[in-house]
Amino acid sequence: MWLKQSFFNEVTDKLDYDELCIYFLMDVSHMDLLEKRERFALKERHHTRDFEWLPFERLKDAYFYPLFLKTEIYNLPEHFTIRTEIQRS
C-alpha cells in the first residue's frame, strides 16, 4: 500500500495543489466489476466516469496516473510506503 502526497501547479487554472492519495491492492473477485466489459462507465452524481481494464503487459505503455504505478505495480511493497512528489512549473 502506498500513501502518495503530491504538490503541483495545475496548468489550466494556475493554482497550487496538495493531493493525498491511497493506493492499495484489493480483491474484486466477489464483486460484479469483473462481469463488466473491458470498458465501462459509472455515473457519480452529475459526472460519468469511464473505466477500462488493462492487462499488466500494457500498463507500462498506457496513459494513466499516477505515473509511478506504471513500474511500481510490478514491485508491490511489503510494508506501508509513503511517497512524496513535488512538481513545480
Description:
With 89 residues, this protein is mostly beta strands. It has one domain. It contains 2 helices and 5 strands. It has a 3-stranded mixed beta sheet, with no helix packed on it. It is globular, with a radius of gyration of 16 Å. The two termini are 29 Å apart. The model has no long low-confidence stretch (mean pLDDT 88).
How would the blueprint of this fold be written?
Blueprint: E1 2-9, E2 16-23, E3 39-44, E4 47-52, H1 56-59, H2 69-72, E5 81-87
Parallel strand pairs: 1-5
Antiparallel strand pairs: 1-2, 3-4
Entry keywords:
89 residues; mainly beta; three-stranded mixed beta sheet; two-stranded antiparallel sheet; 9% helix; 39% strand
Quickly describe the structure.
By secondary structure, this protein is mainly β.
Radius of gyration: 16 Å
Biggest sheet features: 3 strands, mixed
Give the overall form: globular
Structural class: mainly beta
Q: What percentage of amino acids are in beta strands?
A: 35-45%
Instruction: Flag low-confidence runs.
Output: none
Average pLDDT across residues?
Answer: 88
The neighbouring-strand order within the major sheet is 2-1-5
Total strand count, please?
5
Helix content: under 10%
> How many separate domains make up the residues?
1
Q: Give the helices and strands as they follow along the chain.
A: EEEEHHE
Q: What is the helix tally?
A: 2
Seen as an oligomer or otherwise, the chain set is: single chain
Between the first and last Cα atoms, what is the distance in angstroms? 29 Å
